[in-house]
Design goal:
alpha+beta; D-Maltodextrin-Binding Protein, domain 2
Length: 238
């Protein structure tokens, strides 16, 4: 759901004629980019550590300046009582962010369990928590007693915004294409009402989500947050 404003702009812009647009969940897009099946992908930023050559090609991203609502650690017990954490398979960045925050911010040692399918959310009970992202996080928020927003926790821990995903290229692309592509990404942000109207949703106020939770501009502060996160990942024992 968080990509809808960016995709709205791309679909309305002439640059679409130069693109074979494919949609998938974030970690799979990253795998395709790393294996050269794609030239550009909106991928979880942690994945760049698996790439030899990469470049951010747009001034737009999926980021937040605090609470993000759709990237959460959810549980039936407070964080100090959590013993196990199920890890959402859809985004390696969210998994890594949770590991960093549990180690540095909450200072809590837990057992991490990689989840493989949607059934893992049924196991979020007792002292077993779960990292859940995206639209499914909105569903889980209605069920879990304790909701720890990872964007909010990162901001409190570091004082910086967080970047979950960015447009990454695995090769040098023509400058005129990059300019058009960046322009297209910005179109939807000027038509949020239209984006919301195209995507009826009952679990969360999408206009609030697009204007208050997600922050799409990849500014200098977000780049600082991104660089700090990548530095932390290099020393994180995963």
């Amino acid at each position: 759901m968080n990509t809808k404003p960016l995709l709205y702009g791309i679909r309305k812009h002439p640059v679409l004629q130069e693109i074979d647009l494919q949609e998938d969940y974030p970690s799979r897009i990253a795998d395709k980019l790393i294996s050269n099946e794609l030239d550009v992908g909106l991928i979880p930023v942690a994945a760049v550590l698996r790439m030899d050559d990469w470049e951010i090609i747009s001034g737009y991203c999926i980021g937040s300046n605090g609470p993000v609502a759709s990237v959460c650690l959810l549980s039936e017990v407070p964080v100090e009582k959590i013993e196990k954490v199920l890890l959402d398979y859809q985004s390696k960045t969210s998994i890594s962010l949770a590991k960093v925050l549990l180690k540095e911010y909450w200072k809590k040692e837990v057992e991490f369990i990689d989840a493989t399918g949607e059934e893992f959310r049924n196991e979020i009970k007792g002292t077993t928590a779960g990292v859940v992202i995206g639209d499914r996080a909105f569903q889980q928020r209605l069920k879990s007693t304790y909701i720890y927003d990872l964007g909010e926790a990162w901001q409190k821990h570091t004082g910086l915004p967080f970047v979950y995903a960015a447009w990454i290229a695995n090769k040098k692309l023509p400058e005129d294409f990059i300019q058009q592509f960046d322009e297209a990404n910005g179109v939807g942000l000027n038509h949020i009402n239209e984006v919301v109207a195209e995507n009826p949703y009952t679990l969360f106020d999408l206009k609030e989500y697009y204007t208050s939770c997600i922050s799409y501009e990849l500014d200098e502060r977000k780049m600082q947050g991104l660089q700090l996160f990548l530095e932390k990942l290099k020393t994180l024992d995963t």
